[in-house]
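Lab notes, practical 5.
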Amino acid sequence: MKKEQIPQFVSKTVWYSDAKSLDWQRHKLAIIKQVLLYGDVDALAWIFSNYRKEEIAEAAKKISLSEWDKKSLALCRLYFKIEPKTREAQIKESERK
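Output from the prediction step:
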């Protein structure tokens, strides 16, 4: 992943945190999740140029079904071949580990 400052068009999707304080490795799942759910085309292009497809797919799998909007969910289902789980299913799965 490139070591560059997060651009404003990406940081606006992570509104709950100061972009300068984001740690690229520790917060990559949160950054990817927020961009998938709330980002525009430029923000999506940025995550695809800064993270591997596998990292993005892994983050997408962790987004519960209830958080997705229909268009974003349809795109991620097709592109990443994922099937998001309900929040309850995610909880049960994590309890089994």
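Observations recorded by the TA: The mean pLDDT is 84. The CA atoms of residues 76 and 82 lie 7 Å apart.
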